[in-house]
Write a structure and sequence with these properties.
Distance between the termini: 187 Å
Largest sheet: 5 strands, mixed
Number of domains: 4
Oligomer: single chain
CATH superfamily of the largest domain: Immunoglobulins
Structural class: alpha+beta
Strand content: 35-45%
């Protein structure tokens, strides 16, 4: 009886120790499993990477001046193993590569640029962007300065240019003298009066943009002696009352220049100017009409006529 009472506590203690040992083993097994699946297994057998979606990114939008090179960059595109970058510039031209340089020759205009990327699996994606192309004005260079003698015809050597090769082929260049009158090329006839004048060259592109440049023309007097003009009066009108007369000096001339003024004295205390003139007299008596003409170099001549 005494031996039975002594062995029971010992049996319970052994049972608890066994259960504790089993618990420790289970915990160790659980920790090993966690270590395997969380640390060791991913190293030995890494998971397949999640593929990056294939997306073409041409950058932009872009704004550029005509005739200026535009740098296009497709490096913002995403995807796994992109193999090709194909560009459509929207103006009939194309190119390949992650970056491209392209020049748009004509503005103002809008172009849609498309970038198509392809990966090693043959999948494709296209992205687009806008390019705004500004028109630039042309440039004008009037050349000069120029020099000539009165009445001489000289050649003006100005040039017109445009940054756009398209606009350059249709560029309009026009010359004008100091008064704004258009000069018919190729020659410019210098004024009949010595001094300095200006000529202006205007360049205009097909879009209406323009530029101007002016040059000085020094007009020198002729080395030859100035020939005086000749004044000639023509009476072209006489009304029935004998009081209204019409006079003109178109038959007057200058051998080496031009007549710049016509001055009339009607013999009754009245005067007038102009190549053609009407005058009314107060009474029908005899008058002497005088025409004085002056040429571009200051020489004068007169003519007279008696009326009636």
């Amino acid at each position: 009886m005494g031996q039975t009472a002594t062995s029971a506590p010992r049996s319970n203690t052994q049972r608890r120790r066994l259960l504790f040992l089993i618990l420790i083993v289970l915990i160790l097994l659980l920790l090993c499993a966690i270590l395997w699946f969380r640390v060791i297994a991913p190293i030995i057998n890494p998971p397949e990477p999640t593929p990056t979606p294939l997306t073409a990114n041409p950058g932009g939008p872009y704004t550029i001046d005509e005739g200026q090179a535009l740098s296009l960059d497709g490096s913002g595109s995403t995807g796994t193993n992109i193999t090709t970058y194909s560009w459509d510039f929207g103006d009939g031209e194309s190119g390949d590569g992650i970056t491209q340089t392209h020049t748009y020759q004509d503005g103002p205009n809008e172009f849609k640029v498309a970038l198509t990327v392809t990966d090693d699996q043959g999948q494709m994606n296209t992205g687009t962007t806008e390019v705004s192309v500004n028109n630039l004005p042309p440039t004008a260079d009037a050349g000069g300065p120029y020099s000539c003698t009165v009445g001489e015809t000289i050649t003006l050597s100005g040039t017109c240019n445009d940054p756009s090769s398209v606009d350059a082929t249709s560029l309009t260049c026009t010359w004008a003298d100091f008064s704004g009158a258009t000069i018919s090329e190729p020659g410019y006839t210098c004024p009949a009066t010595p001094g300095e004048v200006s000529v202006t060259l205007t360049a205009t592109d097909k879009d209406g943009a323009s530029a101007q440049d002016s040059a000085t023309v020094t007009v020198n007097p002729s080395s030859e002696p100035n020939e005086p003009p000749m004044a000639v009066i023509t009476v072209y009108l006489r009304d029935k009352t004998g009081l209204i007369f019409g006079f003109e000096g178109r038959s007057s001339s200058d051998p080496d220049g031009e007549i710049v003024s016509y001055e009339w004295n009607f013999g009754d205390g009245n005067t007038g100017t102009g190549v053609e003139i009407l005058h009314t007299y107060a009474e029908e008596i005899n008058y002497t009409v005088t025409l004085t003409v002056t040429d571009n170099l200051g020489a004068v001549a007169t003519d007279t006529v008696d009326i009636p």
